[in-house]
Amino acid sequence: MRDCKVSDELVRELRRLYRELDEETARRGWRCRACGECCHFARHGHELFCSQVEAEYLAAGDELADETGDEVCMFLENSRCTRHERRTLGCRTYFCDAARAQEMSALAEFYLARLKSLHDRWGRPWRYERLSAQLARRKALSGKE
Questions:
Q1: How many CA atoms lie within 13 A of 39 on its CB side?
Q2: Per-residue pLDDT at 20
Q3: Which residue intervals of 28-86 are DSSP H helices?
Q4: How far is CA 55 from the centre of its chain?
Q5: What stretch of H or E contains 139?
Q6: Beta-carbon count within 10 A of 97 CB
Q7: CA 37, CA 22: separation in Å to the nearest integer?
Q8: What's the pTM value of the predicted model, to 2 decimals?
């Protein structure tokens, strides 16, 4: 799975991007309630998209479940995110506050452009799609080794 691994330096850049985003949301007073509600995608009518690099970082070192659905995040256990520190840009810009949806969307677009730039600088393909599709591809590739 050589073509899918994320280098340490790329991980550092991704973490830096995430840290800057987290600092920005904190400045705006946006706080995650850590209730796990946003992880119930079907219930709230949203989907979680991420890039290939994000999916690799999110799932690094873990064996994935055979099924990765789109209704509830596979990393949700007992109403808690088991990957909170590694959560994707989409997770970091979605808050249970419909009144701020437009503001959140603008911030997400800004950081999404930076994420795409990170992929470009590292020569990584830009695949921005559902988390379930990213993880299914990763699982299929790991089975070919």
A1: 19
A2: 97
A3: 41-44, 52-59
A4: 6
A5: helix 131-143
A6: 12
A7: 19
A8: 0.87
Tokens 């904190």 sit at which residue? Answer: 26
**Token pair of 64, please?**
């994935």
Tokens standing for 9? Answer: 């330096």
Cα angle value 57/140/4 (rounded, 5°)? 35
Q: CB 145: neighbour CB atoms within 10 A?
A: 6
**∠41-46-47 over CA atoms, to 5°?**
75
In whole angstroms, what is the distance from residue 61 CA to residue 40 CA? 24
Residue 75 phi, psi (nearest 5):
-95, 10
What is the amino acid identity at position 109? E
Q: What is the pLDDT tens value at each position of the chain, 145 positions in all?
A: 334 567 899 999 999 999 999 999 999 988 877 788 888 888 878 888 999 999 999 888 766 665 567 788 888 889 888 888 999 999 998 877 777 788 889 999 999 999 999 999 999 999 999 998 988 887 777 665 4
Q: Name the nearest CA neighbour of 21 among 126, 133, 108, 129.
A: 108
